[in-house]
Amino acid sequence: MSARIRFENVSKKYLLGQTRTSLPSVVSEWLARTIRNRSGPPPEDRVLWSLRDVSFDLDEGQSLALLGPNGAGKTTILKLLANITKPTSGRIETAGQLSALIELGAGFHPDLTGRENIFLNGTILGLSRKYIADRFDEIVDFSELERFIDTPVKRYSSGMIVRLGFAVASCIEPEILLVDEVLAVGDATFRQKCMQRIRSLMKGGTSIIFVSHNLYLVQAVCDRGLYLHKGQLQFLGTVDEAISVYEQRLHQERAEKFEIGDAEAAGSLDYDVEISRVEVLDGGGRPAEVLRSDEPARIQIHYHAFKSIGKAHASVFIMRSDGLTCCMMRTKISGVALHIERGSGMITVDLEPLQLISGTYYAEAHFLNETDSMELDAKSGRSDWFSVQGRFLSYEESSGVYEPLVSWEQRSLDNPHNHHAWAIDGIGSTIDAPGGSSGKKEKK
């Protein structure tokens, strides 16, 4: 059976203050509801529409990111698809085996060991004991928790719980996989591993619905995006378009809170400067989606200061697609003194050469106070994705993250005249180093 999801005009309504934790509360709510029904529908301030007429389709092998602020309705969609709750109106169709990783530790019993929880979780998903046993070693290997597999889960850290939960959810090869924010707890290496696993599942025909506030992770995993605001569908399209619409809305909301020239509004803000754009350019200052590791690159930070700040500092990070920090540049460390006046400005950082190995990256920037201890901006600025073409044809995790400028030397301890030294000029060429004779080097 091919994986398929159909979400047609789905709405979900909650009554605020409604609880169902015990028999007395259920009876109490029933009596209160009976009385309210006699006097008419509940007042509008007690009604919360978590979703309102939302529609989308997802076919085999597709990936969809759900975007929006907290309370937008993203997790509600996942819970409806996982059959945890029912829609108030509309129609939901799912075809194919579904696996959900919605809440940290969901489906795990804290007093059971990791081994026992693997079988429990698999049984909840409708799998036979034999199927789980056949996949057991693969699940444990992916989670990297072999040493702790017979330890009760209540002694696991949050990161260990995520590892085990994702391993169970993904290694059973579901036809539909729901993932909600939990990867934010894992470390960079594990996130990269999860992303590779998700891509492998997609190639095998698994459909993915992915929720994360980490927009970089979203871009790396998904090809489509759905932007929600207060339970209503705002945009559905490619993931890049959806992120752009979402970020424009965030920028618009911040702009509405502040109008240039309004001193009273400026005093009410909890930040002093806003980063409007971060650009990654080639050495000539031109936009480029692909940069070479052995050529210069430039990072430009555009900002607007809502008031004069005086002395300040800036930090710039280059991040790999899995969230790994590749390098950090700080004005404080470089001995650079910034002075920020009210108005718009730009800061430029030049890297000569770039030195990153082949891969996909983005740049992130922050403003900090004079002591370099407190951020001055409401949120960091980030660039678009950019790719780096290294001097080597292949890219492996073991290659590291950058290609340093190096020099090599070979000296014979028996013959002092047998001495060779080489220096690399930053563009992959070998030149003679002072004090030694160079051997001929063949470029790769």
Descriptive overview:
There is one protein chain. The protein is globular. It is of the alpha+beta class and 444 residues long. 30% of the residues are buried. Mean pLDDT is 80; it is low at 258-268, 393-397 and 436-444. The strands form five sheets. Strands 11, 13, 14, 15, 17, 18 and 19 form a seven-stranded mixed beta sheet that branches. Strands 5-6-7-3-8-9 form a six-stranded mixed beta sheet, with helices on both faces. Strand 6, helix 6 (188-203) and strand 7 (207-211) form a beta-alpha-beta unit. It has helices at 23-39, 74-81, 114-124, 129-143, 158-171, 188-203, 215-221, 239-257, 263-268, 331-334, and strands spanning 4-15, 47-59, 63-67, 89-95, 98-101, 176-180, 207-211, 224-229, 232-238, 273-282, 290-292, 297-305, 310-320, 325-330, 338-340, 343-351, 359-368, 381-382, 386-389, 407-411, 419-424, 430-432.
